[in-house]
Amino acid sequence: MVNRMVTPSSGRVLIDEVDVAQQDPISLRRSIGYVMQSGGLLPHLTVEANINTIPRLLGAPASSDRIHHLMESLELDPALGRKYPYQLSGGQAQRVGVARALIFDPNILLMDEPFAAVDPIVRHGLQEMVAQLQRDFHKTIILVTHDFSEACFLGDTVAVLSVRAHIEQHATPREILTHPATPFVEKFIQATRPLKVD
After folding, report:
1. Beta strands 32-35 and 108-112, pairing class
2. What is residue 121's predicted lDDT score, i.e. its pLDDT?
3. Is 52 exposed, middle or buried (0-12, 13-18, 19+ CB in 10 A)?
4. What is the count of structural domains for the chain?
5. How far apart are CA 190 and CA 182, in angstroms?
6. Any idea what DSSP says for residue 117?
7. CA torsion through residues 61, 66, 67, 73, sign
8. Residue 197 falls inside a structural domain
């Protein structure tokens, strides 16, 4: 809905107080960074070429210096720029996916289950990286996850959706944990591992 791939059945989606339905869908989609579950890296391109894919397609390739600086900020050794996706660990591939999403400096970052395919230790490191990324780059990050504790750790606000994609509750993690709005939210919280409220 944010990028107009799906039309909302009711309500509106606003970005900077502008209804996305009033925006050119191609321009809108080009202004958003995407990080997918599997990283979505192109296997025939090096890491550096993968990161530079979108700027190159937009006619403004990023410099190697900019790519290396971004890689370093995401705890990736710039020497990995010459490697191919099959030569990377799962965590490295996800970080490259994040670098590719950030290289053209989008205002919004959409992350669709970005940590689902990695082990818990790598997952925790990637969660810490996203939290640091938000502090460093000040981006709006929309993160889709089935892990409620992850949503609470990373989100300023959390939207709990039902199976039919109906928003059951949209609030701070504390508010959701202490005052579930619907029986669905209450059952959802009970089904997750215990969380502490700060």
Report:
1. parallel
2. 87
3. buried
4. 3
5. 13
6. T
7. negative
8. no
